[in-house]
Amino acid sequence: KQQERVYIMGNKIEINMGNDGYIVIANLYKDGDQWCVGVGDMPNGLFGFGYTVGDAVLEFKDNCRNRNNN
């Protein structure tokens, strides 16, 4: 599993998308027993969930790539 280096600032998280330094500032919060990283509002926003912040970031990045490829 790939490790993510994240920078957390209160309820915001800085995510390096790996595209020539492209950075996303997303919301970070707990949703039940999982972490959520997201931008926008449900249902049209973009989100990632995971039991750790790193897992939520990885899912967020995967969802970004999948949305851009469709």
Verbal overview:
The chain is of the alpha+beta class. The chain contains 1 helix and 5 strands, in the order βββββα. It has one helix at residues 53-69, and strands spanning 7-9, 12-16, 23-31, 34-39, 46-50. Strands 1-2-3-4-5 form a 5-stranded antiparallel β-sheet. The radius of gyration is 11 Å and the shape is globular.
- Cα distance, first to last residue? 25 Å
What order do the SSEs take from the amino end to the carboxyl end, as H and E?
A: EEEEEH
Unreliable stretches (pLDDT < 50, length at least 5) are none
Give the % helix: 10-25%
Q: Looking across the biggest beta sheet, what order are the strands in?
A: 1-2-3-4-5
Overall number of strands: 5
Give a short account of the largest sheet.
5 strands, antiparallel
Sheet-strand content, in percent, reads 35-45%
Q: Pairing-aware structural class of the strands and helices?
A: alpha+beta
Radius of gyration: 11 Å
Which geometry do the CA atoms define? globular
Number of helical runs?
1
Mean pLDDT: 85
Topology record:
Blueprint (H helix, E strand, L loop, with lengths): L6 E3 L2 E5 L6 E9 L2 E6 L6 E5 L2 H17 L1
Antiparallel strand pairs: 1-2, 2-3, 3-4, 4-5
Brief descriptors of the model:
70 residues; alpha+beta; 1 helix
Gist of the model:
This protein has 70 residues and is α+β, with helices and mostly antiparallel strands. The chain has one helix at residues 53-69; strands spanning 7-9, 12-16, 23-31, 34-39, 46-50.
